[in-house]
## 1
Amino acid sequence: MYAFLFVSHLSMVVQAFLIHRYSDFPGRATLVAVAWYGFNDHVDYFVPIVGTPHHSLLPVEPVVNGTVQHVSAAHEIGAAGVVALTILATILAVATWRVKISRNEGSVAA
């Protein structure tokens, strides 16, 4: 199951970069996406809305009486990884957007 989640999410990243090459997203769309994913990461790993954090169960986290115990370092490592990847994706999206804008400005000036 975890391999499927990894591969499917990686495929979504590839899909996003392919779509971004031929579509025209305004810069504020990236801002909305960053706000949404930041909120999602925050709720999943740091401040749950209801009960415990909402992320997928990690295999190393014990379940006691039907409740996931977030006592292992895997939770913190997973949270740090997710936040780092969200930041990296944001940087790449903005960089790609800026290159695309600069190329369009260059073609208009020529």
## 2
Amino acid sequence: MNERKLRWMRLDNAAKIYPAAKRRNWSNTFRLSATFREPVDPTVLQSALNVTVKRFPSIAVRIRRGMFWYYLEELACAPEIACEGPCPLIHRSFSEIRRCAFQVLYYENRISVEFFHALTDGSGGLVFLKTLAAEYLTQKYGITVPSGDGVLDREEEPDERELEDSFLQNEGPVSKSRRESAAFRLTGTRERDGYLNVITGILDVREVLALAKRYQVSLTTFMVSVMMMAILSMQDRRVPDRRRQKPVKILVPVNLRRFFPSNTLRNFALYVTPGIDPRMGDYTFEEILRSVHHQMGVELTQKQLSARITVNVRTEKSLALKIVPLFLKNAAMKFVYNLVGEKTSCVAFSNLGSASLPSEMQPFVKRLDFILGPQAICPNNCSVISYRDQLLITFSRSIEETELEREFFTRLRRLGLSIFIESNQR
């Protein structure tokens, strides 16, 4: 890496909020993991990381502070890997993130990569994890893993298209308002030491797809509807007076690469927030399914998403914002984030979809995991990934109570699905 000049890059359009919204005890991070069939060799893993980072100059970075914006600066060498701590996504201070904005961890048979969200989204992070796993298996077992299925050739120079801010490339002629109503807020008893509770439900993806097909909806629509039913029950118990209840809304990230041509490994996702208003009356599960299906159908079109992209890009390009010093931008963005950022949804439901690996890797990789860290205020988040015949639904929470997970998985069980539950509960 020292043989060439290190790159620097502006934060992409979606990433700019993350450094500004950080708190002393919270930063927006997520984790992706691969579990092998044999224990991880730390020496080989470090060697594999040393090779892999050269292919990802937008991820192997630290966060730097400029006069008007934060920016990314490529690392001169790979960070040291570390043995995993007592729980996933242990809080890292922003000073640590400014030194290195991602970290690679290992524990028994598992390797994990934890990303500060300003670097990439789940799709870009999954490409990094797969490529790192491919290089590890190549060095450990001498196999040859070709590029494909999200694995990059480690000997190639980075493609400039992988480094672009695809939001700027897809600005449209019309913008759309970002205004949304507030949603019911989940609360609980905060863990005093910052411990992150994780509960994973493992299902047979074929069973879930068959059930969703029976209802004539997608897997994501099916799961979001079950989540709404669970939260409706929780709100009924906490707020018995229906007139005082608030809408139940789920934040669903959308991979924009499905709608716009892009090879970027940086952030390129927006979100939709389908919801229902319990003040209108009782809902059957079928009514919620139909409502979510139609709301998602209206929002998930190229034209609607283009309008959402446009309002964000135009805000970034405004002259008034450009000339404001960074410390004032940070104060303004943090104020807006604290005011409305987490109040328009109850919980996030992030589905990375079906992850595939080259056939050469499959005998060695037993499982893939995805954990989305909770937000600063909203204490629960939910992330989903499938690999081969397993669907893994993972809840993370910064509170003691397991009410949401219990409601959600109980409803899935009542619908006839078999579930194996794992937890790091203390």
## 3
Amino acid sequence: MYFPYFRGKLYELITIRESVDLIADNDIIPIIEPVRKNINSLQKTLELLKTKDIHFILVINPSVGELKNVSTILEKYIIKDVLEDYKNFSIGYILNANSNLIDIEDFLIRYCDYNIAIIHYGFPNGKELKSIVDKNNNIKKHIFIDNYSGKLYQRYFRNEHWDRILIRNGFKRRKNADYPEDEHFSDLHVTYEDEGMDGYGDFLIVGDDYSETGGPAYAIAIHLTYIDDERDMCIKHFISERTETPVDPAGKFFEALEKLIVEIDDEYTLILKSNACEEYRILYKDGHFPGLGYVKKISMKHHIELIAGFIKKS
């Protein structure tokens, strides 16, 4: 099972909507951590997931963004409104270094009628936590964020009634000008069972680092994942030629895009000729710069297509 972790910005939610058939057909379970108080796009996304009977995980206590520590909006307008008549979802609860056992117990009592996915994101006390979660039959999944939950901690949550999922951040964020042409992304799609897990996930080509807005674009970078001949997942970074000043982002986009087009036109390329790549080809042909959020959306869609194709082959 593949669990892509989405922060609920506009283009992340659009990515889900535009990839909904791939998600439905390939045992993909999106994790959605809402980050915006304007929940119109979130509502639209969840309504579409409902029409496809897709299982998803909705985080009720976001750790970043405008909804950090404001779970009442999600409870009132999403859980008890949009999802009132829908059962095929789980409520995700983030446990990090600032969480405490009293809040966890209160949460489990409050949502005792829902399927629960615990997201382990740096909580230190696995032994005492286990004594609490053992008492709750509605906990279905334990999701471990790699580098925030060690192997000894994960051992507390082995149980035949629980799915264990490992989320690994494969995207190493840098300044755009500093990305290498090519680097390793992840091997979890092949090795998750070796890790003792029932599923795996990542933060797509966005990464775990969260920011509300980006700074001025001195360089433009386009990112595409691919699977090599040894089934390792890697990522190519296509960088604009100009990197010294923040002027002309559209022109820099086409500098990076031209490199991408040359790569996917190479008959020996390892990059999947995805529908998302065709979107890039159309932008190149039309000479249209749609904005950096839109560009990120296309690369996220490509990543989902890549993993969906791997799932089918496997």
## 4
Amino acid sequence: MNQVYSELLPSITSESNLLKKVVVHTPGSEMGLVSPANREDLLFEDILFLEKAQEEHRLMCSIFEKIIGGKDGVVQLSDLLSHALSIDDARIEFIDALCSGDRGGSVSAFRDELGDFSPAELQKFAMTGKSDLPIELSPLPNLMFTRDLAATVGDHIVLARPATAARWREAIIMSTALRYHPDLADKPERFIQLPEGVTFEGGDLLVVNDKIVMIGNSQRTSFGGIVNTAQQLLARTSIEHVILVSIPKKRSYMHLDTVLTFSSPHECVVFPPLFDSGIQGTVVGFSSLGNGDLKASLFGNILEALQELYHRDIEFIPCGGNNPLDQQREQWTDGSNFFAVSPGVVVGYERNEKTFDVMSQRGYRVVSADGFLSFYGQSNFSSGDKIAIKLEGNELSRGRGGPRCMTMPIARTLS
């Protein structure tokens, strides 16, 4: 078996511990099918220059590989799905899911024909909507945002229930790819599946530590999705507290990680207007009363909740600095959406220069992606320094998602 499948056991107890394994999807031909006519239905603000977006994404992956210490740690979702669809049971289940999920019914009419597809043909149809059949589905350009399709908590994986019709096939792809991986195929108890009627996307879940998670009640994750996730996490994992954070139900704030991300165990990059005077919405802490019942505690704001439950001081780093206009501009271009590859080592879009200025003031050494890779060259990454890496994302950022959105970590070190 290819080395890319050597290990995929979930283990996440922090947002910022050293990354060991991450699932990504470098944009492919599905991205080239976004047009002026369909972009809004596909949740895109603009059309991406595919080759440049691929170049930017591969550079991001090179950073991860350098810090992890090898290519095996960065796993392409398309490779995982290709392996899964080579398994007869997985292919049958995948087709069944495509047919049952298609509300228009056109896919179901060609169930038998899909059964005759090769794994490669079936994968192409799932990702692009294109085939020799007399039907056509929308492409899946949002597949590069693997974060939204699942969330690893401890040794469990919460599978998404996307909020929008444009993304239902993505959830089937991620679920099939993970559940039929050799490390997980015989471990169904590791997966948390949510009931129909609720919504949950992984961009709304942040793992504070091995006892606490935060989940955003956002445009994409419903209250019912949070309650169901909380019940299962509290019953089945080491998690003792689930903090619900209500944020405005607007596209610009679509997930919690668009307004708050951890850069280290005690630092968060945040969008100031939602945090300066306490977050503008409900903050509730859930814990277990046993038998599936939850105890709810109301907090004044997110900082109060973290201080009481996390038992350590948290420093908020303002996205965009202190100027309200800069804050709005840089939040829109994912200035709050940093991805921590190691404690205090983060990747963000270089266009958010005011945010990087603040990071520098807070003790981060700000470097370009090329500069970072050039500095380490053939040597292994090893640093106790705080480093903020500027990724060129002029094309990727058009898709309305930052480095955290494009990464679904499976495993980090425990300390």
